[in-house]
Write a structure and sequence with these properties.
Belongs to the 'phage' integrase family. It contains 18 helices and six strands. It is of the alpha+beta class.
Length: 412
């Protein structure tokens, strides 16, 4: 369909007298034999179906049309071009459209709405404008990567209203072949995005709901006391290295690396004993106030003497460090640490709290967890202390057990 045809369809059609003349039964022979007008266009109407006809332009192009009245308006809709549409096919479509009109619907309005319906790419653009800025910097990078490398290459042109569970499930299975964990994160992102689309009245259901996630094995890698000693020893040899100091800071605070990268002096109290992380740097987007140890305070005092930047861990330009991957790899190699991620320092911090008798609520407060189930992953680390407690109870119970009958008779 040409742009000119669409423009013609969208205007009100008011020439009712024209529909009352030039009427004949449309057949393949009649349609083939219709000649083009010298200029403009002409319509040959069908004598059996009201408003159904064939439009012929001066260039010889032919298309089936339907004129109808709805809500007091005369409308014209182009069904399709000839010979792509046969007379029989166009007639059946015109009959369907007529039934729609009889029900009070406007087929042309419905078609226009469908053409203008937002696509997955439209959702991406609005997500980036309105929702992405509410997330942490790291989450923004991850979201954009999944959108641009996984979702959009497959679904960008898909209308949201036409999106199905099968579309989402197929994409998840395709990504799962090479990146099963990332495939799960992608579906979580899709579910959130489609929920937003529901809120914006762009779609009525969430087609990503029900996609079955791939099994994930939670990492539980904690540094042993010996590994911690070796790591600190190699860090001590790089005391003037800002990235090494940041890694030491991670070990002694259990914070997320993004929080450390964005740490500024105005987030700490005057004597550097309390760290108040702004909501913009935390994963939960909530203010997190937490005391720090005397070791961290000493580290901060040394950093404050060594830098004039507003950031605690700044590079040569005064801007915050953005990555310490190379330094971490070097430290692990020199400390003989195997299969340890930077994030495992956070797990290690939590494990040390648990093994030294701190409660789960305390651990959650130190780590900035907003949900108790997040901290619950460390519950098994209390097994030793709980076992000791169970033994204490057993000993106390046994010490208060009444003497047996045999013992009583012996005394008599």
């Amino acid at each position: 369909m040409t742009g000119h045809q669409m423009s013609t369809d969208c205007q009100n059609y008011t020439d009712t007298k024209r529909t009352q003349r030039n009427v004949i039964r449309l057949t393949d022979k009649v349609v083939k034999g219709l000649l083009a007008p010298e200029k403009g266009s002409k319509v040959q109407y069908d004598d059996a179906l009201k408003g159904f006809g064939l439009r012929v332009t001066a260039t010889g192009k032919k298309a089936f049309i339907l004129n109808y009245r709805v809500k007091g308006r005369e409308r014209r809709l182009t069904i399709g071009g000839y010979p792509e549409w046969t007379v029989l096919g166009a007639r059946k479509k015109a009959e369907e459209l007529r039934r729609e009109v009889d029900c009070g619907n406007d087929p042309l309005e419905i078609r226009d709405a469908a053409l203008k319906a937002p696509t997955v790419h439209d959702l991406f653009e609005r997500y980036v404008r309105e929702h992405l800025p509410t997330k942490s910097e790291r989450s923004q990078v991850d979201d954009l990567s999944m959108w641009t490398t996984k979702i959009l290459p497959v679904l960008a042109r898909k209308k949201l209203v036409d999106l199905t569970f099968t579309d989402c499930d197929a994409l998840h299975r395709a990504v799962s072949k090479t990146a099963p964990v990332q495939a799960n994160r992608m579906v979580a992102l899709m579910r959130k995005s489609f929920n937003l689309a529901n809120r914006w009245d762009w779609m009525q259901t969430n087609p990503a709901v029900g996609v079955r996630f791939n099994p994930e094995v939670k990492r539980e890698r904690y540094l042993t006391h010996d590994e911690i000693s070796r790591l600190l020893a190699v860090i001590e040899g790089r005391m003037d290295d800002t990235s090494a100091e940041l890694i030491r800071f991670l070990l002694f605070t259990g914070c997320r690396r993004g929080e450390a990268f964005q740490a500024q002096w105005d987030q700490f109290n005057a004597d550097l004993t309390v760290w108040t992380k702004p909501a913009s740097t935390t994963k939960q987007r909530k203010l997190h106030r937490v005391p720090v140890s005397s070791v961290v305070t000493a580290l901060l005092e040394a950093r404050r003497r060594a830098t004039t930047s507003d950031y605690v861990f700044a590079g040569k330009t005064g801007q915050p460090l953005r990555d310490v991957k190379k330094t971490w790899q070097t430290l692990c190699r020199n400390a003989d640490l195997v299969d340890v991620r930077l994030h495992d320092l956070r797990h290690t911090f939590a494990s040390l709290l648990a093994s030294n008798g701190q409660t789960l609520p305390t651990i959650g407060a130190m780590l900035g967890h907003s949900q108790t189930q997040t901290t619950a992953r460390y519950a098994h680390l209390f097994d030793d202390s709980l076992a000791n407690a169970a033994e204490i109870v057993a000993e106390r119970v046994q010490s208060r057990q009444p003497k047996t009958m045999s013992d009583s008779r012996l005394k008599r």
